[in-house]
Amino acid sequence: MKITDLKVAIIGNLPVVRVTTDEGIDGIGAAETTKPYLKSMIEFYRDMIIGKDPKEVERVMLGIRRMGAFKPWGAAVSSIEFALWDIAGKAAGIPTHRLLGGKIRDKVQVYNGNVRFKRNGNEPEDYAASMQQMKDHPYNFSIIKEAVSFHGGMNRTVDNFYFGTSVTGQRHPNRGTITPKGFKYLMKCVEAMLDVLGDDVALALDCGPGMTVPDALKLAKELEGSNIIWLEDMVTGDYTPYVLADLYKQITPYTTTQIHTGEQIYLRQNFVELVERNAVNILGPDPADVGGLAEMKFICEYADLHGILFAPHGRFDGLIGLAAHVQLAATLPDNYLAFELPQADFEWWNDIMEGHEDLEVKDSHIEVPDTPGLGVTFIPEKAKRYLRDEDADFFDN
Ligand SMILES: [Mg+2]
Fold this sequence. Notes:
Layout: E1 3-11, E2 14-21, E3 27-30, H1 39-43, H2 46-49, H3 57-64, H4 74-92, H5 96-99, E4 107-111, H6 124-136, E5 143-147, H7 154-157, H8 180-197, E6 202-206, H9 213-222, E7 228-232, H10 245-249, E8 259-261, H11 272-276, E9 282-283, H12 287-290, H13 293-304, E10 309-310, H14 318-329, E11 339-340, H15 349-352, E12 353-354, E13 361-362, E14 365-367, E15 377-378, H16 380-383
Parallel strand pairs: 4-11, 5-6, 6-7, 7-8, 8-9, 9-10
Antiparallel strand pairs: 1-2, 2-3, 4-14, 12-15, 13-14
This protein binds magnesium ion (MG).
Residues 206, 232-233, 238, 263, 313 line the site of magnesium ion (MG).
């Protein structure tokens, strides 16, 4: 079998990859719905994979992996890897999880980092009200994540939250020392959410990047003994193009609150310091950023040998990403906790794909389907109307 083409279309806001072969089997992959700008980046790899056997996933990946980078750029390589596993599974007539080692669980746990309800304001009672709605959601989530501190924009919504002046431009990495007033406000919001959740549901907090090491340790110490399952990306993390494991090493060993990072990191090599030095308790790479499903599997196994847990990022990964997450999570060792449930960016995604109906969430879990490949496919007749003019031939050949 040989790869004949790599096509990219932006459907909704999602960059979707379609890899075609000379045997009529195709595979699909996707990046995040927040990255429609990735199209030309993904097309960059076309000439490097055409003519190769897509069933030999690792051999194809060796040819392109080094041409990727930390988030957002690793998504281009990762989305191609998804499509290769989809082809390999379909060609063998088996679900991708069997090619990744086989499932060790029949249903996989998900957490809520994406099902949101509009908050009426920024007071602790507003955080509590929104948390109550998330707790009451029919998916019955076992873990709910909320954005606080710099990640939750508290530096913009609260006067004098920190000793600094926020740059309000998009994606500016504000950071600095939180004021006593800011810290009290942060704690009140967190306590209000913990009161709502009680012992039924664990609370995860996405906190930065942007916090200083002393503030991060202070927050972790204050929350010891509470129902906080992790503090995410306090110092580095989301879209930070480096790791700085040493900074986490000044926090993690000194608190019983679990410390989490990793969503922006590309490739296993960039986890070495975090893992070997036990700089965090939980890693949360995103398969659509880290280099793909096999890359995730390796990192999770490696983390397990060091007593580190695994809670993958995924909120913007769409339906194709959801299917990929389920295939992967089924195969991960018991340090696997839960992945962040992705949702489609538009309702109509459910009309243009099949297979997603097998990925329903019940009691915070999804049953692992046995459909060949990743388990979701386009219905081209229905999907075509959502193609942009320049992508009109996406489903041809
Ligand atoms: Mg995050």
